[in-house]
């Protein structure tokens, strides 16, 4: 019998990407969205890290559905802004969570930053929470730089201002934003593609499903994975997604600061 898994996200474009990446990997799974279960209030994303917020969303999904639940917490980390907006990406311009207003604010904030200093990374953490309470996270990143105006209409969020490093320039030497890429091109290199491809073998193992060939990964590299198993078959480019993040500086920018002391020169928002 096909097993069901909940994808606990309220963002329909993110859900489309997640469904697409999972569907590309031949797992015998029925993916259920939040629209398919009884509604519950959006949990507050009150943590300082992508890992923390992804777990909040996946736990809430599991509690309300009883199903193994996956959630993504993701964002854009801009070097010239000390790693912000990071975990605050979706609310950067305020609680309205408006993509265009958010990206316009980032563009204004780095208006005077020259091309050579406009590096940024997208980060995605996938969390899996099982009905027995066991929890797993994986992380994926995509590096690039920011344009000074929007280009392209595909994707969502900050895609129109983000130029991924991993691409071949066109005949005129021009590089594209991730909003100008096809779905397959973006999924192959994206933070979300990497984080999902890293969590699928864990999900398969937890559900007792065969792991699709191309997805076998270094067993010891996965948090919570068995130490014994087959040789890894993932390309080296996928490996960063499986490095456990314990002890690694959070790129979300919003690191816990002592009470009353703003981190990164910006007063953290109340959770
Ligand atoms: O591939 C991406 N291309 C462009 N922008 C992206 C991407 N991935 C994340 N982002 C931005 C959008 C949003 O500003 C934030 C995610 O915020 P995040 O809280 O994880 O998602 P959300 O509130 O839209 O949906 P939900 O929390 O219900 O999953 O990062
Ligand atoms: Mg959110």
Automatic annotation (TrEMBL):
InterPro entries: dITP/XTP_pyrophosphatase, ITPase-like_fam, RdgB/HAM1. It catalyses: ITP + H2O = IMP + diphosphate + H(+); dITP + H2O = dIMP + diphosphate + H(+); XTP + H2O = XMP + diphosphate + H(+). This is dITP/XTP pyrophosphatase. GO terms for molecular function: dITP diphosphatase activity; ITP diphosphatase activity; metal ion binding; nucleotide binding; ribonucleoside triphosphate phosphatase activity; XTP diphosphatase activity. Residues 219-271 are annotated as: Disordered. Binds 1 Mg(2+) ion per subunit. It holds the Pfam family Ham1p_like. It comes from Propionibacterium ruminifibrarum. GO terms for biological process: nucleotide metabolic process; purine nucleoside triphosphate catabolic process. The keyword Ribonucleoprotein does not apply. It comes from the Bacteria. Signal peptide: none annotated.
């Amino acid at each position: 019998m096909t097993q069901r898994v909940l994808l606990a996200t309220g963002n329909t474009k993110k859900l489309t990407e997640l469904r697409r990446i999972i569907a590309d990997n031949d797992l015998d799974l029925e993916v259920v969205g939040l629209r398919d279960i009884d509604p519950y209030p959006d949990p507050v994303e009150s943590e300082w890290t992508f890992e923390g917020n992804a777990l909040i969303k996946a736990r809430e999904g599991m509690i309300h559905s009883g199903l193994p639940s996956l959630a993504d917490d993701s964002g854009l980390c801009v070097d010239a802004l000390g790693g912000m907006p990071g975990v605050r990406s979706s609310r950067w311009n305020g609680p309205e969570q408006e993509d265009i207003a958010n990206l316009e604010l980032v563009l204004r904030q780095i208006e005077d930053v020259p091309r050579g200093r406009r590096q940024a990374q997208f980060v995605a953490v996938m969390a899996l929470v099982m009905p027995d309470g066991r929890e797993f996270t994986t992380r994926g990143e995509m590096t690039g730089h920011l344009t000074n105006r929007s280009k392209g209409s595909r994707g969502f969020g900050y895609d129109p201002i983000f130029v991924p490093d991993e691409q071949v320039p066109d005949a005129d030497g021009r590089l594209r934003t991730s909003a100008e890429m096809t779905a397959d091109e973006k999924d192959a290199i994206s933070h979300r593609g990497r984080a999902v491809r890293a969590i699928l073998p864990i999900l398969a193992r937890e559900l007792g499903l065969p792991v699709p060939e191309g997805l076998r990964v270094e067993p010891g590299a996965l948090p919570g994975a068995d130490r014994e198993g087959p040789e890894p078959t993932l390309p080296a480019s996928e490996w960063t997604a499986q490095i456990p993040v314990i002890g690694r500086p959070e790129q979300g920018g919003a690191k816990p600061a002592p009470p009353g002391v703003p981190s990164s020169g910006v007063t953290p928002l109340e959770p």
